[in-house]
Amino acid sequence: MKKFISPALLLIFFALSAMGHYAHWSATLEFVISAIAVILVAGFLGRATESVAHYAGQRLGGFLNATFGNAAELIIAIMLVREGLFDMVKASITGSIIGNLLLVLGLSLFAGGLKHKVQKYNVTLAGMNGSLMIVAIIALFVPAIFLQTHVLHEDDRFALSLVVAGVLIVAYILWLIFSMITHKNHLADISEKDAEELPHEHAPAWSKGKSILYLVIATVMVAFVSEWLVHTLDTLTADFGLSELFVGAFVVAIVGNAAEHSAAIMLAMKNKIGAAVEIAVGSSLQIALFVAPVLIFVSHLFGKPMDIVFTVIELAAIGVSVFIAKSITQDGQTNWFEGVLLLAVYMILGVSFYLV
Amino acid sequence: MKKFISPALLLIFFALSAMGHYAHWSATLEFVISAIAVILVAGFLGRATESVAHYAGQRLGGFLNATFGNAAELIIAIMLVREGLFDMVKASITGSIIGNLLLVLGLSLFAGGLKHKVQKYNVTLAGMNGSLMIVAIIALFVPAIFLQTHVLHEDDRFALSLVVAGVLIVAYILWLIFSMITHKNHLADISEKDAEELPHEHAPAWSKGKSILYLVIATVMVAFVSEWLVHTLDTLTADFGLSELFVGAFVVAIVGNAAEHSAAIMLAMKNKIGAAVEIAVGSSLQIALFVAPVLIFVSHLFGKPMDIVFTVIELAAIGVSVFIAKSITQDGQTNWFEGVLLLAVYMILGVSFYLV
Amino acid sequence: MKKFISPALLLIFFALSAMGHYAHWSATLEFVISAIAVILVAGFLGRATESVAHYAGQRLGGFLNATFGNAAELIIAIMLVREGLFDMVKASITGSIIGNLLLVLGLSLFAGGLKHKVQKYNVTLAGMNGSLMIVAIIALFVPAIFLQTHVLHEDDRFALSLVVAGVLIVAYILWLIFSMITHKNHLADISEKDAEELPHEHAPAWSKGKSILYLVIATVMVAFVSEWLVHTLDTLTADFGLSELFVGAFVVAIVGNAAEHSAAIMLAMKNKIGAAVEIAVGSSLQIALFVAPVLIFVSHLFGKPMDIVFTVIELAAIGVSVFIAKSITQDGQTNWFEGVLLLAVYMILGVSFYLV
To answer: Which of B154, C88, C184, C249 has the highest Cβ tally under 10 A?
Structure first.
């Protein structure tokens, strides 16, 4: 990761992005610059999180890693919620989930599989991940199907959304307790070595105090560049004739997850497929079980309540992604062709979202 | 089980329930009393069935256990069919299936998992159960989807329902032959010990003649208290503003399955997870593959034909329950967090049914 | 196979079928004769393909076998496309997929399971097959759900169809490379012996030159009898009051797949369950991933563009078939009752298609 993020480059794009925003440059240029800035700053945030996690000890560190892992997406999404762009919020949640399950996982399996004939990882963890994915899709699917077949009072719709969101957050917290405390060893056998190694590679660069300072700075920077990026999207969709859905699900999601993408693919090529799968699947689970429910609560704090009802095609996209990802990961071994299958589904969804 | 059912308590609640019914007590009071009576009498019926099964020898005994296992639900449902309350029949079938797959199984895995880190059972049986669940949901889903997209003559709708019901009953009988005769040992390896032990714990209490007599008495008593319970439901739904769907799917289903609930959870805590899963999953399979189809035929005997078409949200509820239960049980090992996931889905469905 | 196809019988039915067609015999008689002719000629084609494959060497031979395996269906479907009978094309694609996954596989598991208590095959191949089936159903499901919820310009609908078709064909070619070149041994362990044996049983009958000649002759004959068969279908549906859907999905599909049916069942009874599953599952994958997409492209060549959008009930039928087949095959072992379950689903679908 180190080689990818030069501090100078980071500051230059942050500054350019700010100038573009306040000086009202052309939306396309501003979009490109702020997208690059988001990718760089998200990478910086990821590194700062890892460093703080290193000093915080294994348990709290694991928790921090898990919680800040999608901080960039969460902040972008909060900006979108504040602007009332609910459709784009949901599209970007959809895009993050399918982007991680299909594009990141697909490229990881493909690249890793070209170098290594068969790659293996903990089959019990794969099974648990699969069940969590099923719960995530159920939690999004049930409110949608009930609300499509019955007309509900607005209060009831929000009540249902809040209860479902609450259930998911509790389930996610219990999952952290389960996977990091009560059944840590149970889930770790094969990828243990990878997990141990990872923090050590990057961590020693900064002192404890510096790490915390950088984490704060990175979070603030992400908040700013995210806002600047979000502001360009309206014009962008109009200029290029793209749908909010496509921009949210593919453009925003790819930008917001770029850091995970490169990390997962590099790990897969080093035959650390367990860690790569954890990034891709873990990230999408976090978005479905933690980021999305938190956004429901945040929207109520802003006084602009958002419900948890996704559109039919968003649900279909998430559903098919979960099914193919579950089918491919559940046997605990992967190969290049399984990567091809995930990418094929991603392409089919991408073209479909582009055309509607 | 013995300690749970005192004959005196049983007779008192049976008598109170009868008085409530014929003296027209308040519907709420009558509901509470007859619900308790149903739970007690169903427990008595379960014990009598086990005792008769003990004397009948392993094969016929297994068949009796399997067939009388859901006798209480079947009798309640027949009462509802006779009254023409088809919506509530289907809601209670839905509720029995999801109650067993989510609540009973969820509490069993959670309670068992808190005491035992990982609990294991026969993975081949888990696979067969999974496939049977899939067939059950297909049998309910296919007629619904065909009838939603095509207008069928009434005769054809009933013909389709009867054929599907017939196919399911034949499949269920062949499953009994498969699991109790041709492949008995194949499915039994881990839980064998549990299965052997269970009958011996309760059986010796009654002589052969007494057991049969009690089985007859219990069946008659269930029939009466079920009818008294059913009569309270109309007023109950009106008074509390509950939907038929919610009462059928959650209230009736929980009352009708109370005996299974306690048995499964106690078995799970004793680390007999195979037997606990068998009660929960086996019970829901029996309802889908045997009770529901029998009700279709029974309704024709009453001259009030009922079709097999469930509503979209009932199908969705059964569908998601099958998917998460299959995903969780298919690896043949369970832990407390898997119980949490099942209960999370149950809560999401419960709130949804309550609000619509 | 040898004993099933007598050259004299083949020629007699081919001649009768031609006479029936040009002399305008009654549609029913002509249908019966040309159906028998199709079955015989398809068997001849299958044998010629195997023989050519034998001389072509393992890799090219495998490719030929895979590509010509469904030549009869492909040719029948091309005839239907040329006539513009798109509904019947899609119905017959649906029927081929569900016929292979439910009827052929079901009869194979049932017949094989009656003779052999448990039959085992390569579990890795089973997993890959399952994932491919999921991709196939996703590729058909996604365009349908997007087009049902959004009105698309006609050009965009065909563009979407062509892109999806292209993705599937590329995935199918990569699958051939994966399964026959890069991971051949990985997928072959258990059924290896079967695969080796099969060509040798039939191959030596003809010389290399004769084999190629017969392959050409058989292909031309299939083209003719297929066209004669297709011409009888219109009158047949009208005379017997059958829907295009039922005729396409059950009658045409059974006739077109008769050769696979008998081969798979005989292999299963000889305990070569791996080869039997390969025929059934492989055949349905080939139709979904290769035949269907090729037909989309062919329809554009004919100037009568066909889209890839299947009806709701066709998708439902394919979807449930994939789910039950995947659930049953994924553990790499089979028994007679799993055959019963597949046949039960086939019967439910058959009655449903017949009644609508």
So the answer is: C249
Distances (CA, A) of A263 to A98, A258, A271: 17, 9, 13
Q: Which two tokens stand for residue A13?
A: 């794009």
Within 8 A of C344 by CB-CB distance, chain B residues are 135, 139, 167-168, 170-171
Q: Residue C193 has what pLDDT?
A: 46
CA distance A157 to A309: 9
Q: Is C200 exposed, middle or buried (0-12, 13-18, 19+ CB in 10 A)?
A: exposed
Q: Do A337 and C152 touch (CB under 8 A)?
A: no
* Contact (Cβ atoms closer than 8 angstroms) between residue C332 and residue C120: yes
User: What pLDDT is recorded for position A240?
Assistant: 86
**C 100-159 residues with CB below 8 A of A?**
123-124, 127-128, 130-132, 134-135, 138-139, 141-143, 145-146, 149-150, 152, 156, 159
H-assigned helices in A23-57:
27-56
CA C213 from chain centre, in angstroms, equals 24
How confident is the model over C230-240, as pLDDT tens digits? 888 888 888 88
Select, from the ranges A131-135, A279-283, C206-210, the one with the highest average predicted confidence (pLDDT): A131-135
CB contact under 8 A, A183 and B335: yes
- Is residue B19 left, alpha or beta, with left meaning phi > 0 and alpha meaning psi from -120 to 50? alpha
Question: What local confidence, expressed as pLDDT, does residue A155 receive?
Answer: 87
Q: Looking at chain A, which runs of residues are DSSP E strands?
A: 119-120, 333-334
Question: Which of C140, C150, C153 to mutate: most A Cβ within 10 Å?
Answer: C150
Per the listing, tokens 């026959």 go with C180
Question: For residues B222 and A317, what is the distance between their CA atoms, to the nearest angstrom?
Answer: 48
Nearest to A284 by CA among A311, A260, A310: A260
CB-based burial label for A241 (10 Å; 0-12, 13-18, 19+) = exposed
Name chain C contacts of B135, Cβ cutoff 8 Å: 324, 341, 344-345
Tell me the pLDDT tens digit for each residue of B291-301. Answer: 999 999 999 99
Specify the DSSP class assigned to residue B190. Answer: T
DSSP codes of every residue in C129-149:
HHHHHHHHHHHHHHHHHHHHH
**A331 at the B interface (CB within 8 A)?**
no
Cβ–Cβ below 8 Å for C351 and B127: no
Q: Do B344 and A142 touch (CB under 8 A)?
A: no
| Structure tokens given for B341 | 């996931």
Say which of B324, B331, B351 has its CB closest to residue A163. B351
Residue A325 neighbours by CB under 8 Å, 6+ apart: A101, A102, A105, A133, A281, A342
Which among A131, A152, A182 has the least Cβ separation from residue B324? A131
Instruction: Measure the CA dihedral C263/C269/C270/C271, to 10°.
Output: 110
Asked if ipTM goes beyond 0.90, one says no
| B336 in contact with chain A, both atoms CB, cutoff 8 A | yes
Provide Rg for chain A, Cα atoms: 20
User: How many helices (H) does chain A have, and how many strands (E)?
Assistant: 18, 2
A131: nearest CB among B316, B341, B349: B341
Instruction: Transcribe B3-72 into DSSP letters.
Output: GG--HHHHHHHHHHHHHHHHTT--HHHHHHHHHHHHHHHHHHHHHHHHHHHHHH-HHHHHHHHHHHTTHH
pLDDT class of A260 with cuts at 50, 70, 90: confident
pTM attached to this predicted model: 0.89
Chain A residues closer than 8 Å to B338 by CB: 128, 131
Q: Does C182 touch chain A (CB under 8 A)?
A: yes
Cα–Cα dist C72/C227, whole Å: 11
Extract the tokens encoding A57. 């000890």
- Nearest CA to C201 among C23, C54, C30? C54
CB contacts, 8 Å: A312 with chain C: 145, 149
